[in-house]
Amino acid sequence: MSDEHQTWAPRDPSAASASPGDDGGAQGAQGKAPGKKGRTKRPKRTGWRRLFPTWRMVLGAVLVAGLLLVGGFFAGYQLVDIPAANAGADAQSNVYFYKDGTVLARDGEVNREKVKLSQVPSNVQHAVLAAEDRDFYSQPAVDVRAMFRAGWNTATGKGKQGGSTITQQYVKNYYLGQERTVVRKAKEFFIAIKLNREQSKDQIFEGYLNTSYFGRNAYGIQAAAQAYYGKNVEDLTTAEAAYLASLLNAPSAYDVVAQPGSKPAALSRWNYVLDGMVKEGWLDSGERSTTEFPVPGEAKPSTGLSGQRGYLVQAVEQYLTGNGIIDEKTLATGGHRITTTLDKKKQDAFVAAVKNNVMKKRSDDREPDKNVRVGGASIVPETGEVVAMYGGVDYTQQYVNNATRRDYQVGSTFKPFVFTSAVANDSTTQDGRRITPETYYDGTNKRTVQGPQGSTGYDPANEDDVDYGQITVRTATDKSVNAVYAQMAQDVGPEKVRDTAVALGIPKTTPDLTASPSIALGPATASVLDLTEAYATLANHGRHGPYTLVDKVTKDGTEIELPDRKTEQTISREAADTTTALLRSVVEGGTGSAAQAAGRPAVGKTGTAEEDKAAWFAGYTPDLATVVAVMGQDPDSGTQTPLYGALGLDRVNGGGAPAETWAAYTEAALRSSPAQEFDLRTAPGSDEPQEPGEEGTDTAADPDTPNDTDSPSTSSTPATPSAPTTPSSPTPPGNGDGGTGTTGDATGGTDGGGSTGETGDGGTGTSTGTEGGTDGDNGDGDGDTGALGGGLIEGVRGAREQGA
């Protein structure tokens, strides 16, 4: 057989290496598929190499971890939603300011005032960014590198540092909390990413500025500006802004006032912020070199609601809600900046006046003194602005505001409204005489009020049961004679009196504002503030506008519209000014003479509630109307109590502590302004003297004459006066009587016109402080002088002698 035609099978390397008789090798060779090469078995790892994973294991672990991370990220992103704000994130206090911008009070536990980013100056924004996150506007919501860097610096002893962006810090402040857990950090991570997609950088930065804590219980940049520098955020300097930004890193540790030893660390952080501003181009290097460290002010105690603050806040809230400016629920959400009309200097003066004239006179040894309460209010007549108020000894001790409560009778401070109504309505007495300050009334104690049909059955007692007999309205006002004013109210018409009081400013819903003759004695329980508004209308010549306690309200930088204050002439100027002229003598020589201590032109009226449970003084100068009331109330039961024995006095009346307090406050409140004179336009003929009727005179001469009668023509009702006699021309000597003198400065009567040698009689003296009558012509007897001050006593007839 030839070799050319032989075929060779491929060589099996394994077969060649197999030992003879090794069937397995042969079989293994035979089991290999044709054309396949066998693989060499890898030897096992031995020694130290066994301790380390292979590159395949590392790669696999990385891939698995990557898959887990990606899966975890997508799962977390889907599962973690942006939650509602945490309980304290939106909490704000309403902040109340005096008119000059000084903080009056805060009514919330959280000291936070939100502001819009547009209200925060660029230098303040840049200071915060330089301190906390210089790349905020260019970087993503989460800076992973910064987180790792912060962790590395902390681990290597370079100090504890934060790796959170401003977005993450805002999420922590607003949505989560300050707890340090992995779960919270994970939530923060995912919420920050989502928030960054839903809100703009400006919105996030604004939220951060309003929620960050700066120390001193100040949350937000505005509260911090007030807490450390006593100013609004828009007024901060760059140096001050840098210091506040420094506090974000460690608020308590960097308060150089509370912790003096922290100044080096605070100064270092402050320099870091400023240098960062220069580096970012936000601050000129020249300005940086001249910037000095701005030491903050002393930490002030919380301006809570103690002292007068609570009363003032309560009154302002009642004003806002009562006038529909803000509803109660909205106000309770906080965040309002409320600038009041209150004047801090005047407010302080009111507190001092009460302290010196009432509180210091109390004694622990006198039981009645524990019941003494004081209420007060002061209004500028022209504007209606409430500039001061006194609500009580301390809001935390006595919740009820004595200036706004409506449960004490106003007493005789109501009487001027009766007279105002008389002038406004051209009212007359029962016998047809026009009611003016010089009109005579019967001031007999417990005189029964007479109506058109006779007795009304109402017979009020005068204070101390004094009988005055026939007196003018002016005198009755000076001495606060009840009998006169009850009759005057009847003469004017109780309904008209009520309408006049309402027109002046007394609320129509005031308890016991009843249209009856008793309305004149002040059973109505108007508040101190109500009464002040009414007296301010008199001071403003009869033009009335509701009082105002609020000058401006804003929330989140947006101003809330306030109602326009409209004034109108509710009472004629003549009626208001004639009342002012009438009240002048109350201060000059009547029951309110203590008010003269104000040292400027002033008018007013005293008042005492039934059973002496309250004593009042209401008065005004041309530029300030003020009411002060001293009240009696048991501090335990709340029951109204008489003031007998209080302040070391048998009785407390309006001319005492209330008038003294009024004078002390008014003097201090107006000390820096020049005194003004009253500009009055009184009703025509209001100063002309009148004379009582003869029957009225008889009653005055005999106070024991019965007056409780149904007949309006008896002494209970002033009789019709005789008509004035026109002075006659001189006549030849003969018999004649002198006429009646009615001129304020004239002689009582004219010469008699009798002939020579016959008798002449002196006239009746009614003028003020002049002779009762002149001689009978050619008679030698002179009429005696009439009574000084009122011309009340008839001049004695001239002596009768025969002429020559």
From TrEMBL:
Residues 735-776, 784-793 have a biased composition (Gly residues). It comes from Streptomyces cyaneofuscatus. PANTHER family: BINDING PROTEIN TRANSPEPTIDASE, PUTATIVE-RELATED, PENICILLIN-BINDING PROTEIN 1A. The keyword Protein transport does not apply. Residues 1-46, 428-464, 679-804 are annotated as: Disordered. Residues 12-21, 698-726 have a biased composition (Low complexity). Keywords: Carboxypeptidase, Glycosyltransferase, Hydrolase, Membrane, Multifunctional enzyme, Protease, Transferase, Transmembrane, Transmembrane helix. Pfam families: Transgly, Transpeptidase. InterPro entries: Beta-lactam/transpept-like (IPR012338), Glyco_trans_51 (IPR001264), Glycosyltr_51/Transpeptidase (IPR050396), Lysozyme-like_dom_sf (IPR023346), PBP_transglycosylase (IPR036950), PCN-bd_Tpept (IPR001460). Residues 446-456 have a biased composition (Polar residues). Residues 381-636 form the Penicillin-binding protein transpeptidase domain. This is Penicillin-binding protein. Residues 688-697 have a biased composition (Acidic residues). Residues 103-277 form the Glycosyl transferase family domain. The keyword Membrane applies. It catalyses: Preferential cleavage: (Ac)2-L-Lys-D-Ala-|-D-Ala. Also transpeptidation of peptidyl-alanyl moieties that are N-acyl substituents of D-alanine; [GlcNAc-(1->4)-Mur2Ac(oyl-L-Ala-gamma-D-Glu-L-Lys-D-Ala-D-Ala)](n)-di-trans,octa-cis-undecaprenyl diphosphate + beta-D-GlcNAc-(1->4)-Mur2Ac(oyl-L-Ala-gamma-D-Glu-L-Lys-D-Ala-D-Ala)-di-trans,octa-cis-undecaprenyl diphosphate = [GlcNAc-(1->4)-Mur2Ac(oyl-L-Ala-gamma-D-Glu-L-Lys-D-Ala-D-Ala)](n+1)-di-trans,octa-cis-undecaprenyl diphosphate + di-trans,octa-cis-undecaprenyl diphosphate + H(+). Coiled coil: none annotated. The chain crosses the membrane at residues 54-77.
